[in-house]
Amino acid sequence: MLDADFFRRWMTATAASVHREADRLTALDSPIGDADHGSNLQRGFTAVTAALEKEETDTPGAVLVLAGRQLISTVGGASGPLYGTLLRRTGKALGDAAEVSEAEFAEALRAGVDAVMQLGGAAPGDKTMIDALVPAVAALGDGFGAAGTAAERGAEATTPLQARKGRASYLGERSIGHQDPGATSSALLIAALGEAGGK
Amino acid sequence: MSDEKLVGIVLVSHSAAVATAVAELAKGLAGGGAAVPVAAAGGTEGGGLGTSAELVAAAAASVDRGAGVALLTDLGSAVLTVKALLAEGDELPGSARLVDAPFVEGAVAAVVTAATGADLDAVTAAASEAYAYRKV
């Protein structure tokens, strides 16, 4: 079972990973975006860990709802509302339970990913974070390791795609040949589940 | 003269300069526009390019006179931030609405219409109709 501590570890591990990879995320965002993805997410997840230290969160749902609200408020780019919605909807789907099973978490994350698709209007293959998140949710039944691998492969598979959403879509065919920064950071988020599980 | 019943307008742009200038333009072009509560929410809190949920929420609260609040946005994170805040439920006035409209032309149409004392539906419709104005 996964308790509030697990979800706090997930957020802390994501923040550490985003911090470690911030330069890479920004470098990926330079040719096809506005070169702020790493610094934006770093600011957002720094606020998430600060809020989790300051405010009491007793349930998995409360941890994710608080984290999502911080991301919406602090990121400043499109990734804020998108990641914020992902975590908030996942947290809301978990309800008030003190502990949730991995299957319940997988179901909740699926609801979160659906909310992101609705908010941004992106579908699989549009070269967005969805291309990492959808395969991750599908693989979650086989464990966090499998989900991490699926997300990483999904992110890598965005390289030959042409962007159809966001600023990169203005570039048309010139967006081809670059790995999507949002899919890459989504893979970091999913990989952090494994770190949170392994303590 | 009381502006208590006028619809409030919030202009959300990636740039503080753009949001402020469009607010001035819309009020300047609207007869009686000075009475319409219009607030600009441009850029990040640090003054950079982007969208600040805090600035958007503060702007919406500042123009809420009880007749509804219409939010117009430019693109990308401005649209997504307003949508996420509306989904949040308690960060924006209950009557707040994202208007599907071109930013500059929609802002002018919204302020002109709001100045007549029109309700939120009419302001929304006028702003959206600005899409139909072709230039060529």
TrEMBL record, chain A:
Organism domain of life: Bacteria
One Pfam family this sequence matches: Dak2
Cellular component GO terms held in the UniProt record: cytosol
Record GO terms (molecular function): glycerone kinase activity
Keywords: Kinase, Transferase
Coiled coil: none
Region forming the signal peptide: none
All residue ranges annotated as the DhaL domain in the record: 5-195
UniProt key word Transferase: yes
InterPro entries membership: DhaK_L_YcgS, DhaL_dom, DhaL_dom_sf, Dihydroxyacetone_Kinase
PROSITE patterns the record matches: DHAL
Matching NCBIfam families: dha_L_ycgS
Protein name, per record: Dihydroxyacetone kinase
Organism, scientific name: Streptomyces griseoruber
Automatic annotation (TrEMBL), chain B:
One GO MF term: phosphoenolpyruvate-glycerone phosphotransferase activity
Signal peptide interval: none
SUPFAM superfamilies assigned to the protein according to its UniProt record, in alphabetical order: PTS system fructose IIA component-like
Entry annotated with the keyword Transferase: yes
Entry GO CC: membrane
PROSITE patterns hit by this protein: PTS_EIIA_TYPE_4
One GO term (biological process): phosphoenolpyruvate-dependent sugar phosphotransferase system
Keywords: Transferase
InterPro entries given in the database record: DhaM, PTS_EIIA_man-typ, PTS_EIIA_man-typ_sf
Superkingdom: Bacteria
Pfam families: EIIA-man
Boundaries of every PTS EIIA type-4 domain copy: 6-136
Protein name: PTS fructose transporter subunit IIA
